[in-house]
């Protein structure tokens, strides 16, 4: 559905930008060989086809080793929308129909960049990003993390059956497979004779569960879910980032399942390095466990002032611990709720810090994500409507910074 919607969104934008005398996409399709088409229409059609093709692969505006044609990344953002302040908004790519078109319409009609983190790490993570960052001269954060399951978990190699051909995990989510489930798999596989592959219906049964629950082979016929530290590794966080200090494993899975994939975000944010050599002021909305802050730090961009707005106390503790443990020299301010971020307080911060260089945030996806069977109410849902808070605050910052 996301791909279709992306194409829809791209189409909408295309339609919005074609002059009345120009031919619409549908007409273009029925007129494939119409030599009368003028050059600019042909160019737009080519761009549309290209976007449809790329959106299937979710490579955004290009990923390392997979270049995209310049016509796709040549975004030509209108002058009034170029930073600073830069902004960077993230959410799940797979949303009910119409969500990304609405988000894009609010965020200045900027084309979403749909990208799968599997190009940066060993797990899929299909996300949409809307931002006004430059898209040229992007480079990967080093060191490059393991990009296959087998590289990430070398100890699993001796136990990995040849018939399990996975090289990437599915999206890491907030809940994990249970112990009884892994027991059922062990029993099913053990029924086959020694040194023999299980029959195809067993293989199919096991593979479905392994894919659904992201299970890896940890011993003879034994599968297990990733433990939270392994999840930290894949998500690009320092080991033990979410561990200890009163945080249990269930909570760790939840925090990590909701977070940014650090290497992916760093790939986008690296362009800020040359722009803010002396450091950066960040307004971080829905900070979570600090995926954006960790990315900026790992990129070597000094964090001067970070205002972190995050509801969860546990998340605030994780970010505060990380801040202290990495000897940050800047100032970190915690605010619990985006709804408390008034124009008055923004004005105060802007005059104190000399403005925000970037407004980052991925608002809750609870009412958007496909895994939610109960309250997938779309952007107007109880949690996901917080997107409008992101927009309100960004608008305020832009307005106040222009006025100051
Ligand atoms: N990008 C983050 C995770 C974002 S998930 C990371 O890298 O970890 C969305 C976050 O929004 C959650 O951590 C949730 O606790 C927080 N949140 C929900 N409602 C909020 C509100 N009203 N104000 C601030 N944060 C909120």
Poorly predicted residue ranges: 1-37
Class by SSE composition? alpha/beta
Strand content: 5-15%
Query: Terminal Cα separation, in Å?
Result: 43 Å
Mean pLDDT: 87
The largest β sheet comes out as: 7 strands, mixed
* Shape category: globular
Number of helical elements: 15
Strand order of the largest sheet: 2-3-1-9-6-7-8
Radius of gyration: 23 Å
Bound small molecules, deduplicated: S-adenosyl-L-homocysteine
Helix content: 25-40%
Counted beta strands: 9
Secondary-structure element order, N to C: HHHHEHEEHHHEEHHHEHEHEHEH
Q: Can you describe what's shown?
A:
With 404 residues, the chain is of the alpha/beta class. Helix content is 39%, strand content 12%. The strands form two sheets. Strands 2-3-1-9-6-7-8 form a seven-stranded mixed β-sheet, with helices on one face. Strand 6 (280-285), helix 12 and strand 7 form a beta-alpha-beta unit. The longest helix is centred in the N-terminal third of the chain and has 19 residues, at 39-57. The two termini are 43 Å apart. The model is unreliable at 1-37 (pLDDT under 50).
Outline:
With 404 residues, the protein is of the alpha/beta class. It has 15 helices and nine strands.
């Amino acid at each position: 559905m996301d791909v279709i919607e992306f194409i829809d969104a791209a189409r909408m934008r295309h339609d919005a930008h074609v002059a009345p005398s120009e031919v619409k996409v549908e007409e273009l399709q029925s007129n494939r060989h119409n030599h009368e088409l003028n050059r600019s229409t042909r160019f737009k059609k080519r761009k549309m086809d290209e976007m449809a093709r790329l959106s299937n692969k979710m490579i955004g505006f290009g990923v390392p080793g997979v270049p995209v044609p310049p016509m796709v990344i040549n975004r030509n953002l209108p002058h009034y929308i170029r930073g600073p302040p830069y902004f960077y908004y993230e959410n799940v790519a797979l949303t009910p129909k119409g969500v990304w078109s609405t988000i894009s319409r609010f965020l200045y009609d900027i084309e979403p960049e749909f990208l799968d983190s599997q190009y940066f790490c060993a797990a899929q993570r299909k996300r949409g990003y809307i931002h006004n960052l430059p898209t040229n001269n992007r480079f990967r954060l080093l060191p490059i993390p393991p990009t296959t399951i087998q590289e990430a978990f070398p100890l699993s190699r001796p136990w990995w059956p040849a018939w399990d051909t996975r090289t990437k995990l599915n999206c890491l989510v907030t809940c994990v497979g249970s112990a009884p489930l892994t027991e059922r798999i062990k029993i099913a596989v053990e029924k086959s004779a020694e040194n023999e592959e299980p029959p195809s219906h067993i293989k199919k049964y096991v593979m479905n569960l392994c894919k659904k629950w992201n299970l890896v082979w940890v011993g003879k016929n034994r599968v297990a879910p990733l433990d939270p530290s392994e999840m930290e590794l894949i998500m690009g966080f320092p080991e033990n980032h979410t561990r200890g200090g009163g945080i249990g494993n269930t909570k760790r899975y939840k925090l990590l399942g909701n977070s940014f994939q650090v290497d992916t975000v760093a790939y986008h944010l690296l362009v800020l390095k040359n722009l803010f050599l002396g450091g950066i002021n960040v307004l971080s909305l829905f900070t979570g466990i600090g995926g954006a802050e960790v990315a900026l730090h790992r990129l070597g961009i000094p964090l001067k002032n970070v205002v972190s707005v995050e509801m969860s106390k546990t998340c605030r503790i994780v970010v505060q611990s990380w801040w202290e443990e990495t000897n940050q020299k800047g100032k970190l301010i915690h605010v619990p709720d985006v709804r408390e971020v008034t124009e008055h307080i923004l004005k105060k911060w802007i005059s104190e810090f000399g403005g925000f260089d970037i407004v980052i945030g991925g608002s809750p996806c609870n009412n958007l994500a496909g895994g939610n069977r109960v309250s997938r109410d779309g952007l107007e849902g109880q949690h996901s409507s917080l997107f409008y808070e992101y927009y309100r605050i960004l608008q305020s910052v832009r307005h106040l910074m222009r006025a100051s």
